[in-house]
Amino acid sequence: MGLPLLSSALWNPSHSCSSSSVELIWPHLSSKSCCLGLKFKCQQFYKGRSTMLGVLVCSSRRSTSKETVWRRKKLPQNEDLPPILPKNKKKPYPIPFKEIQQAAREDKKLAQMGIEKPLEPPKNGLLVADLVPVAYEVFEAWKLLIKEVHVAQTGHNFRDCYGPNGRERRSSHAWVKGSVNDILVPIESYHLFDPFGRRIKHDTRFEYDRIPAIVELCIQAGVDIPEYPSRRRTNPIRMLGKRVIDRGGNLEEPKPWRFADPSSLNDFDTYRAFERFSRPSLSDLPKIAQETMAAYEIVKKGVRKLMRKYTVKACGYCTEVHVGPWGHNAKLCGEFKHQWRDGKHGWQDATVDEVFPPNYVWHVRDPNGPPLASALRRYYGKAPAVVEVCMQAGAQIPDEYKPMMRLDIIIPDPEEARMIA
């Protein structure tokens, strides 16, 4: 049985491919049709000496439901971290700016025609029932995470410190004992009884509590905390363009000066966590590390699910985050050209890394060994601080972190590194 003739249009070596994976599709064979198909998505060899792209298909074959599809995808050996954004520019928009403008034009057009803006939960103030369990799962995992979480015995010798008085230290780091806030970067947000209510003004900012942004996101998604009440609407809000014409009924908000008991934050705040929780025994470390690793994954994936529906805003210049449909009006931004904005934040849609920062650290293969050498810097990998701590405590690391940690790369001796071209 021979292969049928192929059209030259199927072969185009100019196509680009960013993946080194190979996909093989083996259809169901029958005596009436030749049904052999091989699809080589991309073959790339090291040093870039060979690249082949092609598709072989049977021209007389009809698609059938009985197929055996085999795909083989390998993780890369190493992966670079996201680039560090310059501080003298605004962050890029997560959503293309043209799409934002197009949506604004459509809203304005509907408003001019007197047509209300169509809203679905949670944009109309109602809860998304399917995400309430996710919010509780994230909240419980977050409380477990701050309980269980120094990445190496000694700091590295890289001279890349750009903090205050860095020139006097010739860019060398001044190492001190770390805390949980160095592992889980604290990102706080104002707690609002009604996210669709009045905006926080600069003069009224002290009348609202600041709590972890992840906790505020869980509250707005359905988690009930008595110390931090939240309005649960039964009637949706109505909007005409950018103007709210019906807030789903009038409801008196609790007095903003009624602060919650500070002790109520102990379960879900990272402040002075080392003092509140006792140090575990060495025999329990592997189990605790695995539980912490699982909780970290639950929080990260759960926050991603919630942010697909619930709006979270972030400043395009600083690290301020606000959970809700609109950002607050507190003039607290002191970053690039804040004088031109009178200290106002430049609000845009937030990303998961802005709400739950990974805080990448260098991966240390031997915590009791010598410090990382600057000459071998390109051979070392990085990982989120929580992942690095859990791995050193004996936890199994998910495969997605192994490329950025460069576990498959052999670190040479300094003498050998000089001989490598």
Sheet with the most strands: spatial strand order: 10-9-11
- Helix count, per DSSP? 10
Mean pLDDT: 77
Q: What class do helices, strands and sheet pairing give?
A: alpha+beta
User: Which bin fits the share of residues in helices?
Assistant: 10-25%
Largest sheet features: 3 strands, antiparallel
Subunit arrangement of the protein: single chain
CA-based shape: globular
Order of helices and strands: EEEEHHHEEHEEHHEEEHEEHHH
Gap from first CA to last CA: 50 Å
> Ranges with pLDDT <50 over ≥5 residues?
1-70
Radius of gyration: 27 Å
Give the tally of β-strands: 13
* Percent in strands: 5-15%
Features:
single chain; RNA binding; two-stranded antiparallel sheet; disordered N terminus; APO_dom; globular; 3-stranded antiparallel β-sheet; 13 strands; 421 residues; 22% helix; alpha+beta
Short description, anyone?
The chain contains ten helices and 13 strands.
Question: How would you characterize the overall build of this protein?
Answer:
InterPro entries: APO_dom (IPR023342). Pfam families: APO_RNA-bind (PF05634). The protein has 421 residues and is of the alpha+beta class. It has a domain at 99-149 and 184-357. It contains ten helices and 13 strands. It has a three-stranded antiparallel sheet. A two-stranded antiparallel sheet has the order 1-4. α2 packs antiparallel against α6.
Helix-strand layout with pairing:
Layout: E1 22-27, E2 38-44, E3 51-56, E4 67-72, H1 97-112, H2 132-148, H3 180-183, E5 188-190, E6 210-212, H4 213-220, E7 238-240, E8 243-246, H5 273-276, H6 285-307, E9 312-315, E10 321-323, E11 347-349, H7 352-355, E12 360-362, E13 382-384, H8 385-392, H9 402-405, H10 414-419
Antiparallel strand pairs: 1-4, 2-3, 5-6, 7-8, 9-10, 9-11, 12-13
